[in-house]
């Protein structure tokens, strides 16, 4: 590829990431064709087999702010300031996500997707092609072949192609079949799968449970969660092993399923719309991790979003991370003055290790959500961390906050710092009678000493502020390398 | 699949594993079609792009003994009883592989493959089809479609299909594309790649270096190795990173390559046939790891050998492990009385964790071969282990021997026991002045105490004898679970 300034770009996949990328690149002056295999959901109702709502947080907001769409989307979004833990006995525990009403936001996946597509269509130079299903891709010439509405075929020759076509990316699959191409790849199915259920609104449109919370019923090897929708309903997701002693496969008749809901979710069961019938009728959806290296093939095709780094939903970062891909790429377009021969390698360099880190963090978070969230010692650990973080915000941002509320802190650094924090907290939690003494001054003296010793050697005083909250006192190094 | 006794079986891939499997299953009474994409190497000379010779050891011999081919192959094989380490200054160090002249054997890959194919053809019910390239596979009906000699196509409907088609298995790739099939998969390219070089025989047909050794020039991030051939020559393999500061890519002109050989392999350079020209002319071959789960798809198709578990060659176990797959499968055919509905799940259950273990062990062994083999402290550690193992053969078999010379010990157990041994040896090597005191009685008293404490709790006294050497005193538990 030459370093010419203006290129014609094809983006395969008009999900939230592909549509956002189209907007961003169009605004840099590129001519964009955005291809989507499905019909236009704005004119044809369709269930995409994906989660109905999802959690948008500061990394996502930062990318949406860059295209000026943040306020429009925030108008429809519901802030969730805490986890609401539902114990088996029905008792509730509130766990704030951060400080000062920091929140993650429940948004409609379809809604945000449609708003982004509409905005893309409004950009000069963007053309959106629905019902275009990629069938082949010539990685040398840049020719993309599509099956159009299942009727005809069409070829498009473009100088640059982005695969934004999700976890089971066709672009990626075609790349893997290139002879002689060294592509390391993994796709791992998690033992957990999921189905979605619904808690409706009250007849007056109000919420049946606390609105501004992400509700969790942690049951160790499985869990139910619920996110609020603007219409007063909650979309619930039941995560559980596909196979095994207690699993989607073992619960194979209505009696067992009914007993299961009564035993483990007694408070939710009466609220859910036909949980037993829905459970019996729905095939559980898989959860996968995808790793691939390289992301850029023959200087002509690049992967982005889930196509490059599918993760599990347990950190609420899938879409946020894909949006961050777009934001970083757009910044690199400027930085390298439209020289794609430099932009694409820099893009992979900037994103790969960070996406590997959030894939790992998301995977680990299942245990935190489904098991530890109900564990007293774990909650105590969180309380100590929160208190210490308030005392020394320059020295300690809890891992969840680094990932969720520090949108300029690279994921890889969050992971590395988090591991040192874990070591430190393990030591603190081993103090005798920590349950009684957790508020004692000596606890925080030890924490300060350990943090000084183990963290500041690695974390330089360069600060990361949260660009979404200019007055934020959050500070942490941007330095990437942490000797964890 | 029904549990009927006799089935028609297709085996895709007539490499050593596919051919051995054909012999074994034919002898159990099955009708076998063995398909190979390449022409018959016995009538057409062809370079297969694979290593010319490889190391056969006790797991391989055990499988060959089961079909009575061991003596015929041993007649052409060259025992290698030690590593011969070549330092940069040309000095040599001999590291025995085991006790009492225990050896690994250099065999010709093509030779053993051809002997197995010839034996397969001699079995009643086996038909071998060369130049049949698999193009499609219907996993429900069992129909295999082939491109025949690049001219016509042919379909074969078989009740059971084995994919023995190697690291880049087409059977595996077709399985991955099945809609709705949960297949976890990874293919990882190692940074190292390799080319082959040759040291010829002397004019009288004798060997230019010690015949009964595997020669290694360990240079930390890269290495040269050499295995003897029956004609007096050595086949050498240079393993080195494809990219980086010192790599196949960085050595991009004859001067650099010549300087490289002179600097790092001064004793080998004058023996090698045109090393510089060969280096410049050959494209380095990749090394990959393959993991896939499940190995059995729709009760009808199963993967075996590299198609199921490709590994790097650094433990000399690739073919041995594939042969073990066949031996174990054949034993399960008897055990489950030809009920394939039971055999295939039992096969995966028996093999998967063990193949994962040897993939991991082989990967780790690059460091041992290319770096540690030249390290004085590492050699001391090996000497202490060897001495202790001689004193207490029931308590301690060195890891290399568990993998190589204990053919009935599962790889996964070797890995787990090896990790406990490593902990113990780390402690022993930390003794003050161990370099001076390594022969002192107290060293072995400590070792005995640690081994008693950490190993016997996990390793039951049930013994594993080496069925290839009936008088062997090797004993180690067959118990699979080791709390490592």
Automatic annotation (TrEMBL), chains A, B:
BP term (GO), one: L-tryptophan catabolic process
Xref: Pfam families: FAD_binding_3
Region (Disordered): 462-484
Chemical reaction(s) catalysed: L-kynurenine + NADPH + O2 + H(+) = 3-hydroxy-L-kynurenine + NADP(+) + H2O
Keyword S-adenosyl-L-methionine applies: no
Keyword entries, A-Z: FAD, Flavoprotein, Monooxygenase, NADP, Oxidoreductase, Pyridine nucleotide biosynthesis
EC numbers on record: 1.14.13.9
Single GO molecular function: FAD binding
UniProt entry tagged with the keyword rRNA processing: no
InterPro entries noted in UniProt: FAD-bd, FAD/NAD-bd_sf, Kynurenine_monooxygenase
Pathway where this protein functions: Cofactor biosynthesis; NAD(+) biosynthesis; quinolinate from L-kynurenine: step 1/3
Record field: compositional bias (Polar residues): 463-476
Coiled-coil intervals, chain numbering: none
Requisite cofactors: FAD
Domain (FAD-binding): residue spans on this chain: 8-359
Similarity comment: family membership: Belongs to the aromatic-ring hydroxylase family. KMO subfamily.
Role: Catalyzes the hydroxylation of L-kynurenine (L-Kyn) to form 3-hydroxy-L-kynurenine (L-3OHKyn). Required for synthesis of quinolinic acid.
Protein name: Kynurenine 3-monooxygenase
């Amino acid at each position: 590829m030459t370093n010419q300034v203006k290129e014609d770009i094809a983006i395969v996949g008009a999900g939230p990431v592909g549509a956002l990328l189209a907007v961003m690149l169009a605004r840099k002056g590129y001519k964009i064709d955005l291809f989507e295999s499905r019909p236009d959901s704005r004119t044809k109702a369709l269930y995409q087999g994906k989660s109905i709502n999802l959690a948008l947080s500061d990394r996502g907001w930062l990318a949406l702010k860059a295209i000026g769409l943040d306020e429009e989307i925030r108008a429809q979004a519901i802030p969730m300031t805490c986890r609401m833990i539902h114990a088996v006995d029905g008792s509730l525990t509130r766990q704030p996500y951060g400080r000062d009403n920091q929140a993650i936001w429940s948004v409609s996946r379809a809604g945000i997707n449609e708003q982004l597509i509409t905005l893309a269509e409004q950009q000069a130079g963007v053309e959106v092609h629905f019902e275009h299903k990629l069938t082949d891709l010539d990685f040398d010439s840049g020719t993309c072949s599509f099956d159009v509405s299942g009727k005809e075929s069409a070829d498009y020759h473009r100088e640059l192609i982005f695969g934004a076509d999700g976890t089971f990316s066709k672009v990626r699959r075609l790349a893997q079949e290139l002879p002689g191409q060294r592509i390391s790849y993994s796709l791992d199915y998690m033992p957990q799968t999921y189905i979605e259920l619904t808690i409706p609104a009250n007849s007056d449109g109000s919420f049946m449970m606390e609105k501004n919370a992400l509700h969790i019923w942690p049951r160790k090897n499985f869990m139910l969660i619920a996110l609020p929708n603007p219409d007063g309903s909650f979309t619930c997701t039941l995560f559980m092993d596909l196979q095994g002693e207690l699993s989607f496969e073992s619960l194979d008749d209505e009696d067992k399923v009914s007993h299961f809901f009564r035993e483990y979710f007694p408070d939710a069961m009466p609220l859910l719309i036909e949980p037993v019938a829905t459970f019996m009728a729905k095939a559980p959806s898989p959860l996968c991790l995808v790793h691939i290296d390289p992301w850029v093939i023959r200087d002509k095709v690049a992967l982005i979003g889930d196509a490059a780094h599918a993760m599990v939903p347990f950190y609420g970062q899938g879409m946020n991370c894909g949006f961050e891909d777009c934001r970083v790429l757009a910044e690199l377009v400027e930085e390298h003055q439209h020289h794609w021969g430099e932009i694409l390698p820099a893009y992979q360099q900037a994103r790969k290790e960070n996406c590997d880190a959030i894939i790992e963090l998301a995977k680990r978070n299942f245990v935190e959500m489904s098991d530890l969230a109900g564990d007293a010692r774990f909650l105590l650990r969180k309380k100590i961390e929160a208190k210490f973080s308030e005392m020394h915000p320059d020295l300690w941002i809890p891992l969840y906050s680094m990932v969720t509320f520090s949108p300029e802190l690279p994921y890889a650094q969050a992971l590395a710092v988090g591991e040192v924090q874990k070591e430190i907290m393990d030591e603190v939690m081993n103090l005798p009678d920590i349950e009684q003494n957790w508020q004692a001054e000596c606890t925080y003296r030890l924490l300060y000493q350990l943090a000084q010793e183990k963290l500041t050697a690695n974390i330089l005083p360069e600060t990361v502020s949260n660009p979404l909250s200019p007055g934020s006192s959050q500070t942490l190094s941007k330095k990437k390398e942490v000797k964890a």
